[in-house]
Structures are given as structure tokens and as C-alpha cells.
Amino acid sequence: MTDHALAVVRAGALTTVQDLGRPGHAHLGVPRSGALDRPAADLVNRLAGNPPEAAVLETTLNGCAVRPRSTVTVAVTGAPCRVTVDGRAVPWGAPVRLPAGALLDVGPAVSGVRSYVGVSGGIAVEPVLGSRSTDLLSGLGPAPLTDGTVLPLGRPTGVHARVDVAPQPAPPAELVLRVTLGPRDDWFTPGAVGTFVSRPYRVSPASNRIGLRTEGPALERTRRGELHSEGMVLGAVQVPPDGRPVVFLADHPTTGGYPVIAVVHAADLPAAAQAVPGTPVRFVAVRRR
């Protein structure tokens, strides 16, 4: 058994391995997956001295605790949280030297949803279709972590960042999502389209890595028939029969049969990863290209 590994002491509510994902396999029915808050994952790798493609841990709401079997550099970004080493507080958003056998505890998110844990060398589980990401929809990649899981680590290839604390955007108090209407906005009444881009929604507790579900006014359709399944893209806003928009995130299905009223601009999706249930959501229409 290698000493260059990370033992999971507390897995938390949902902690997964994530990297840049596996785009380009939609024709096989494989979602892209990957870190939901890509800027936070990129930053944690830079802090730990890793290349952008290194795999990290993505926690959900209540963090996790891990113990390395060799001395490593670690960093935590994303949702702000208390970080301790053997019970002693250490900086969040900065590289920390973690001795072999020490316990790194990533606490519950103070705000936001997902924290990212980077370890020098990266999480070196076996890649599937070129990625180490856990995909909750298809089941590809490593299973969500459980207590006692041991994760292999890669060999460090770089030097960790020399910063005290790296600035990061705060989780959104209001989630503003710019959208381009279509391709199926003509399946909805003009009043429904107006409601979609003018009325407030809220993030639903039923949201997950597959999609951000919303609560708010239902959108009325003009067509009652079924839509043939068609390709779905990251950020697609699908409207199921209950009329409440769902924003597709990294683990979204590659096809779907409910109409897509709009598509969210990719630059706005990382904030969606950090929007806690109850956060106000506003869809803002941008002129069609």
C-alpha cells in the first residue's frame, strides 16, 4: 500500500472527486461532469502547486476530514468555511503544509454550498474516458467518498503559491443568470416568457449537481404535445411539466424531452454552484446572437 495517499476520516454529506470533466462525449450519452465551481477548483490547484487538470475534492455543505500518509501541501477554496489541522485553525484560501498523519478538517460552509480541497500532486484515482470526475448521473468515475476511503495521490510537479490569502468572490446573495432565449421559447405563451425574465425565483432544496431547480411562478406552455428528445447543453434551462425552470449543471443529461426556454451564459454558472436553497434567482434576457 502506497504511503502517498489520503485517508478519508469524515466524508461529509457529499464529497466527490472532480477535475476538468469529460467534455466531448455527449454523442455517447456521457455528461461532461467536472467541478461545478470551476474558478474555485482552478484556484485551489494553483494554491497547491498543481496543474489545472489535477483532480480535487468537491464538498457539499458540511465539508470533510482527511488524513495524508505523507507530508503534502493543501488548500481550501470555494464556499468559505473553518479549516483546522489537528484542531488548530489554519487559513482558508491559502496553501498549508500538512504533515503526514495530521488531520485536515474542512468545516461546514459559512456561506455558499461547495468547498474545494486541493492536495499537492492531485487526487490520482484511475481516469475514466480521460477524467477522474465523479458523475452522479451516469455513475462514471469514483463513487462519492465514504468514511475510510483511501485515495491515491500523484507526485507533486510544481511549487505551491506564495500568498497569505487568495481573493475569491462571495457566494451570491442574489443569483443573476444572463440567458439567451431559445431554442424552444416558442413553446411558451408570451406572458410566460415575460414572467421568466421579470419575476423572481428561488433556489430549490431539490437542486444538485445535475441541475439547479427553482421555486416560483409556473410557466404556461402553448403546446401540449410531447417534444422529441433533443440534445441538451450545459446551462440549458429546461421546463418540466410543473412549469418551474431547471438550470442544467455539470452532470446534466445529454438529451431531454422537455422544452428549453433559454440557455444560461457559461460565465454565470459558477455562482449557481454556490447558491444555497432559498437564494433569490433572476433570469436576465440578453439579445439573441
Automatic annotation (TrEMBL):
Family annotation (InterPro entries): CT_A_B, Cyclophilin-like_dom_sf, PxpC
Q: Which UniProt keywords apply?
A: ATP-binding, Hydrolase, Nucleotide-binding
Q: Does the keyword S-adenosyl-L-methionine apply?
A: no
Carboxyltransferase domain span: 27-289
Cite the Pfam families for this sequence: CT_A_B
* Entry protein name: Biotin-dependent carboxyltransferase family protein
**Species this chain originates from:** Streptomyces venetus
